Input
Amino acid sequence: MLLRPISLADTAAIDLVAERTRATLIEVEGEDAGGTMYSMDWLRDRVRWHLDGRAAEVVVAEDANGDIVGQTIYRIESDAGAHSAAPFGLISTTYVAPKARRLGVAQHLLARAEFWFRERHVLLSSTWTSETNRPLIALYDRNGYAESERGPNQLTQTMMVRLTKALIP
Ligand SMILES: CC(C)(COP(=O)(O)OP(=O)(O)OC[C@H]1O[C@@H](n2cnc3c(N)ncnc32)[C@H](O)[C@@H]1OP(=O)(O)O)[C@@H](O)C(=O)NCCC(=O)NCCS
Output
């Protein structure tokens, strides 16, 4: 498996990442809420926003045939606000195609995000997900993350949990 950060020039990959971000929302929030939460244009713009000179990466995982089977987006949040005194790493989204699940793809993507944060001396990593997302919570749990905060999603009222881990320098 190859992990590849994409760029603004990679329009086909941007489209695919946006489509699969929508698939993620549907899987987590259900067809009605997840499918209508954001337009495809908004989702594509959101992918591009991460690639537009920010401290962020959009990474795809390719299988041996060159097919994209997984993706993740992460960034450094400098405006830490009430969460932390220092900038922290935020893993915004992760998705693995159903046919490629339980093969360690998400584990590789998470390890890359943590490595990238560490390289930039960002020693706190976190993500948000629905409290009912057992696969994702199990993945983060085995990587040493613990719940640090919870609250309802403003759009859907789904109860969300923040999973956080201190990274070892
Ligand atoms: C959550 C998700 C990203 C996991 O991807 P994956 O590539 O299948 O995960 P991995 O193979 O790397 O799993 C690593 C470990 O995580 C845990 N895990 C992953 N999926 C699991 C599941 N369905 N049930 C229980 N534990 C799970 C296990 O500990 C697993 O290790 P194991 O297979 O040796 O038991 C994938 O199921 C997915 O894309 N879900 C839909 C999208 C989503 O919910 N994204 C997050 C939105 S915030």
In short: Residues 24, 27-28, 93-96, 101-107, 129, 133-136, 138-139, 142 surround coenzyme A (CB under 6 Å). Residues 2-166 form a domain with the Aminopeptidase fold (CATH 3.40.630.30). The chain has a mean pLDDT of 95.
